[in-house]
């Protein structure tokens, strides 16, 4: 178990909804009772980050629903779709253990691929058929430059999920900073009637951002990977101490001193505008910035590397 479970019942109380029509029926019942609905979309392999989103949803809403769906369209053919951790039984126990203000997670949406992609889906973009959603302007840089189909896949599945669940509030983690910007723009541009709530990144004791992909790492690699957050903190400290406008290059130089590590491969280390994600020449108090990075770290007993992303917001 990865969340702080105090106790859990043998039979989970959560309703498991497998079809779009079951979720629509559940949502209609909430609507008729004028209940606020909170929604946490996930790909499963739940950790404390997901738990903090779900707990906030319990506090803010009358009813809360979580989805678990490993979305093929956000993976490239060479990525880890097949290997992505799938731990539904554990996830269900974790969700069932959550409790806030006397409320518990009411429903789990656990659709099959055919339910979400009635036309079928392949990770080969050129062979995909049907409707897809792109959010131009904030999907191409940073993560999008390394994973060109990623945000199209995320925006597509999130649009589908929001269409089905129609939540009052939907919850995402700041760890996926660019995903949050893409989804806020998606909701604004497509006039989707929901409130996007972004909550702080949850971290391991050593500072490593919690991620389902940390499951690929040994404790030793996790400890070594904590330099990613240390480097972000160094950048933040340098900026705060300057108490004024600071050239981005100076912040990056300071961070690189910590981040460069012999067998870590830094894919990008960028300082961007917090809303538009445009590259910033300098960080100005009041405007602020997101410092974001993606680092590939080696896996034990494998030639594969694991990509870890993290970010910190400057104000
Ligand atoms: O952040 C994630 O887990 C996924 O990208 C999301 C938002 C559930 C869409 O598949």
Indicate the topology.
Blueprint: E1 15-17, H1 20-32, E2 37-42, H2 48-60, E3 63-68, H3 88-97, E4 107-109, H4 113-116, H5 143-146, H6 150-165, E5 169-173, H7 177-189, E6 195-199, H8 219-225, H9 227-242, E7 246-247, H10 248-259, E8 265-272, E9 282-283, E10 289-298, E11 305-314
Parallel strand pairs: 1-4, 2-3, 2-5, 3-4, 5-6
Antiparallel strand pairs: 7-9, 8-10, 10-11
Helix pairs in contact: 6-7, 9-10
Bound molecules: pantoate.
Pantoate binds next to strand 2 and helix 6.
Average pLDDT score: 95
Task: Report the count of strand segments.
Answer: 11
- Inertia-based shape: globular
Biggest sheet descriptor = 6 strands, parallel
Radius of gyration: 20 Å
The neighbouring-strand order within the major sheet is 1-4-3-2-5-6
DSSP strand (E) fraction? 15-25%
Question: Share of helix among residues?
Answer: 25-40%
**Low-confidence parts, pLDDT < 50 over ≥5 residues?**
none
Q: What ligands can be seen in this structure? A: pantoate
Order of helices and strands: EHEHEHEHHHEHEHHEHEEEE
Gap from first CA to last CA: 35 Å
SS-based structural class? alpha/beta
Organism: [Candida] jaroonii
Keywords: Ligase
Protein name: Pantoate--beta-alanine ligase
What does this protein structure show overall?
The protein has 315 residues and is an alpha/beta fold. It is 34% helix and 19% strand. It contains ten helices and eleven strands. The strands form three sheets. The protein has a six-stranded parallel sheet with strand order 1-4-3-2-5-6, sandwiched between helices. Strands 8-10-11 form a three-stranded antiparallel sheet, with helices on one face. A two-stranded antiparallel ribbon has the order 7-9. Bound molecules: pantoate. The site of pantoate has 10 residues, from strand 2 and helix 6. This is Pantoate--beta-alanine ligase. Keywords: Ligase. It comes from [Candida] jaroonii.
